[in-house]
Design brief:
Blueprint: H1 22-30, E1 34-35, H2 44-47, H3 50-55, E2 60-61
Parallel strand pairs: 1-2
């Protein structure tokens, strides 16, 4: 579930999502980078309005591990 002006109104996520996708999606929303080693991915295209995603390209770091 998501709510706010940047969320695409009435859109249903067609692709199967996992609980593991929550962290990268929240990090994307906050403007933080995802780890390139993660198998999960942010649901940015399915969830957010295009104007929001156009202003926020995906960025990655190699890993969050030490």
């Amino acid at each position: 579930m998501a709510y706010g002006p940047m969320v695409a109104k009435g859109r249903r996520v067609q692709a199967r999502a996992s609980i593991l996708d929550v962290t990268p999606t929240v990090l994307y929303f906050l403007g933080c980078r995802s780890a390139a080693t993660w198998t999960a991915s942010p649901r940015r295209i399915a969830l957010f309005q295009r104007s929001f995603t156009d202003e926020r390209p995906m960025t990655f770091i190699p890993t969050y591990e030490r």
